[in-house]
Amino acid sequence: MKEIKFILNGKEVSVEADPLKRLLDVLREDKKMTGVKEGCGEGECGACAVLKDGVLVNSCMIPLGATEGCEIITPEGIRETEKGKLIIDAFGDAGAVQCGFCTPGMMMATEALLTINNKPSEPEIREALSGNLCRCTGYDLIVKGVQIASERGKDLW
Amino acid sequence: MVDSYRPRDLKEALSIRAEHGSTPLAGGTDLMVRYQSWTGTLPLFTNSIMFVGHLKEMNFVKKEDDVLLIGGTATLTSVANHSDTPVVLKEAVLSIAAPALRNNATLTGNICNASPAGDSICALYALDAVIVIEKNGSSRELPITEFITGPGRTVLAADELVTAIKVPLKSSSVNDFTKVGTRRANALSKLSFTGVADYKNGRIDSIALTFGAVGPTVVRSVELEKKLKGLSGADIKSKISSILEDYSTVIVPIDDQRSSAEYRKKVALNLLEKYLKELSNHE
Q1: Residues paired with A43 in a beta bridge
Q2: Does the pLDDT of residue A154 top 90, yes or no?
Q3: What is the pTM of this model?
Q4: N or C terminus of chain B: which is more exposed, having fewer CB within 10 Å?
């Protein structure tokens, strides 16, 4: 056990845990951030996606010890922001959500994409979402959701 | 449960390697999956772990003279984004998994994992990459072909650390990296192919052809490449079937869960044929 400090959704937090514990488990169990989902647990589905120092990563593959001093943002950290609300509304309007399990990860991937490219083409959107699996929608409506977010969010990103 | 260490700098990391032989963990994208256990429980590592991903001294991708230097903790994303990265390496790296994984995984990790299906390795064999290895008080450099000795096996000693990869930047006019997998993202290779070649005065001046996931390590035959040097495009065109015959003797894949030996061999030779046709049109 060790005390590890990092910044979680803008606030410095301290966690007493084994440094090899998965960030995913730390977020869900220790920090009750259940917007982060576990799908496959091996980096294939993207349901556990978070931002680490501004870039999209899979929290199931990151041990806590590798996050010391890093800035971690979970779906809880973006859903109340102007950008987060815009993505949520865009996904809703597009019908991009069915069972909803992949949605937090899809939103994180969308936030990460629009941050580096606020006018993505359709192939760029599909590439950006390529690490996120959805077993309901067939993806087209999620792509549409990202397009709506990009159009409405003109100057936000 | 195993111990873990978080060195302050490279020097301390080398000391930890010397004292404990801990497994270096940079991005964790291979190790965390290989040793994963049940949800909420710790990964079942069998050796102590040393975090290295945060070490800034090894986090660089830069061009120095005619060499691209890739630091031991440089991520796949940073390799793909660098303007001097050779096109086959860029394509190989972008064929790996998906953005979230590439943001975290390192090129050095892909090499040290030494999977026969490691996509970057296929390109790095063709580019004559050199592995920079350090330990307390000394360092050595090895061609990647000597660094990897078998599936999951390298010559890295318990007290050593790979601190950088050197990729010579050579002129190359006909470049191809192709990966064959079950889907475009997040699939391990059934097989992969890399071809790089350059003409001088209408004759092939340099050429490297490598095949991934069709043997215990990436397949490259310097002897067969020698036979191609000095040929013109027209020569290549007239010799395609004999070149394919030559290569069919060195491509000896196996059946496994991802593909069959027969499929791998057929497709590897098809990719070679496609490359040779392109090469013959490019003098």
Answers
A1: none
A2: no
A3: 0.96
A4: N
